[in-house]
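[09:14] KT: can someone run the structure on this one? pasting the chain below
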Amino acid sequence: MAKIAIFFSTNPSCIYLSQEVIVKVIQTGLFSVLKRFPKHKDNAKRLFKESESFQTMCEDYLKCVKALDHWNQSGMDIAPLRRTEYTDLMQELEEEILQKLNEFRQ
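[09:31] RB: done, structure tokens below
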């Protein structure tokens, strides 16, 4: 029986070949958090496994990163307002995530 490996990447379009099986890459908010807080990598991974609320926080962060990227590329009249909103939201999420990471470490 062939084993199927699932790889994680920040690039959702990547495809890896393993044991002649093509596996679509799974992207989670954890990778966005790891990218933003590399010094907290081990704690973030453990907390992600143990805490559903932290998982949700990470997924919200990923959505915010994607939305901000969208509005940064947009030429719509509303784009500057949306960029400000998502920048503020991202900052709030980063503060909450960092607080959780620091609490978990103790």
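[09:33] KT: thanks! The beta strands are 15-18, 21-24.
[09:34] RB: yep, looked fine to me
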